[in-house]
Each structure stands twice: as structure tokens, then as C-alpha cells.
Amino acid sequence: MRFISKSIIIAFSFFALYACVNQNCDVKNTPKETTFNNDHLLMAVLYQQQAAECKALYYQAFNLAQLMLDKDLADKTQKGKRAVVVDIDETILDNSPFEAKMITKNAKYPEDWNVWTSMAKAKACSGAADFLNYAAGKGVEVFYITNRNEKEADATIKNLKEEHFPMVDTIHLLLKAKESSKEMRRLKIMKKYHIALLVGDNLTDFAADFDKTSSEVRDAKVTELRKEFGKRFIVLPNAMYGDWERAMYDAYKADTTKTKTAIRKMLLKDF
């Protein structure tokens, strides 16, 4: 009897949330929680830190990147100097210790983010430094486009140098100034270089079409650009955070732990 009652209550809660969302209710007016937790991040962070499969995916991505770069370099019809453009966080530097701190401390981003980046202790993702040094050795320019801000420049440069990445300086490091979109920074590079590869963990690392869009648009655009992935676009795994999560919450105007938890469960597809 208790089990049935609990199931009915849970089902009713999700129905109420779904009805509210579809009637454009303002969930921002719902009471704020007195507690906050990041337990939903636990398996994602553990996967990043403990799964050999995750490490293998990084090696696979950068092995493929090298093959595609070699193919591009062999194309004699392509004129001009080549460049490889990479994101930093969860693409070439592993910030999972910061995400772990968010769980153990039950903190919200960006709390302690600047503390973490100022330490300059993020480790290189598997295969990242080897690939970028290979590219540099072939005469390819390496550019780092990141949404870290300008205050993080010195610590970021220090971190990248200590992890043995090439061409780490204020010319090749393009930080966020005013807007989070990376399109203008990509276009700046394209004025002087042919971008052979774009490498990142977020779809916004590849094209402006993915900037601040819905889950449906993101999905459709991936299908449209499917021939670019594994060819010119190299994607790295990151289940901890990203624009995919923002798009999921934005669709339902969720800004509280309770509503986000409900939405995550509501969007699950089971059998």
C-alpha cells in the first residue's frame, strides 16, 4: 500500500510539472530550495575520472584528428597556412576535480571556479598534448579558443605550458571578452588561416548554428552536419556539463534544483 501511494504521488508531481510547463507557468516564482546538491553529477564525474573507456575515447579522438590532419596536409589544392583550433576545458584540460568539488561541497558554478583555474593544476586530457605537438611539428598553427575570461589568462597560460602544449602565448590563446559565442574568434583566425580541424566537447566549439539554441535545433543541426564529424569536427566526451544541459532546462524555464531534477526524470525514455 505504501509503495502504491508513493508511486501515485510521484506520478502526480510529474504530471503537475508537465502541465505547468505546457501552460507557460512561471516556474521562477516557485519557492527556492533551502538545500542544494549536485548528486546528479556523481556518475558523470566518476566516468570522467575512473572509466578507462573515457580515456580510450580521448585517445581515439586525437588519433582520428591526426589522421584527418595528415589527409588535409596531403591536399595540395589547399593553399595557405593551416591551423588547428581547440577548446580548452574538457577538450585538452581535465577539470573533473573542480566538478568533484562541486559535489562534495554542494556548490553552484561559478563558485570556486577562479580558485581552481588560478591553481593551474588541471591535467592534460589523454592524447591532447601529443596531437597538438604533432600538428605544430608539421608547421600547423595551434589556436586555443576558450570561454575562460581575460582575468584567467596568466594562470591558463601557465597551466598549458606545464602540461607541455605548444604555441601557448597571448596570440594563440583567444579568451572570452564580451560574448560567449566563439564565432567571431573563429572568423578572425579564418582571415589568415585555413582551419583544418576544430576540436571541442561542446557543439558551440564548431559552429555558430549551435549558439543558444534548443535541444531540437541542436539535434537537427547535428544531423545536417553529420559528414563533418570525424572529418573536420572532432568531438570529445563530456557528460558533466555543457550547452546540451542548458538547452534541456531552458525549454522548461527551470532554475531550481527541484524543477531541474523533475525535468531530468521527465525527459528519460524508458520502455
Write the layout of secondary structure elements.
Layout: H1 2-22, H2 42-50, H3 52-73, E1 82-86, E2 93-94, H4 96-104, H5 113-119, E3 123-124, H6 128-137, E4 141-149, H7 153-162, E5 173-176, H8 183-190, E6 194-200, H9 215-224, E7 233-235, H10 243-250, H11 257-266
Parallel strand pairs: 1-4, 1-6, 4-5, 6-7
Antiparallel strand pairs: 2-3
Task: Describe this protein's structure.
This protein has 271 residues and is an alpha/beta fold. It has a domain at 56-94 and 123-237 and 250-255: HAD superfamily/HAD-like (Rossmann fold). It contains eleven helices and seven strands. The protein has helices at residues 2-22, 42-50, 52-73, 96-104, 113-119, 128-137, 153-162, 183-190, 215-224, 243-250, 257-266; strands at 82-86, 93-94, 123-124, 141-149, 173-176, 194-200, 233-235. It has a five-stranded parallel beta sheet with strand order 5-4-1-6-7, with helices on both faces. A two-stranded antiparallel sheet has the order 2-3. Helix 7 (153-162) links the parallel strand 4 (141-149) and strand 5 (173-176). Helix 2 packs antiparallel against helix 4 (96-104). The longest helix has 22 residues, at 52-73. The radius of gyration is 21 Å and the shape is globular. The model is unreliable at 1-14 and 23-32 (pLDDT under 50).
CATH architecture term of the domain at 56-94 and 123-237 and 250-255: 3-Layer(aba) Sandwich
**Helix coverage percent of residues?**
40-55%
CATH topology of the domain at 56-94 and 123-237 and 250-255: Rossmann fold
Outline, from the CA principal axes?
Answer: globular
Secondary structure class reads: alpha/beta
Low-confidence stretches: 1-14, 23-32
CATH class of the domain at 56-94 and 123-237 and 250-255: Alpha Beta
How many angstroms does the end-to-end distance come to? Answer: 25 Å
Main sheet specs: 5 strands, parallel
* Average pLDDT number: 90
In what range is the share of β-strand residues?
5-15%
Q: Strands of the largest sheet, in order across it?
A: 5-4-1-6-7
- CATH superfamily caption of the domain at 56-94 and 123-237 and 250-255: HAD superfamily/HAD-like
The helix/strand order is HHHEEHHEHEHEHEHEHH
Radius of gyration (CA) equals 21 Å
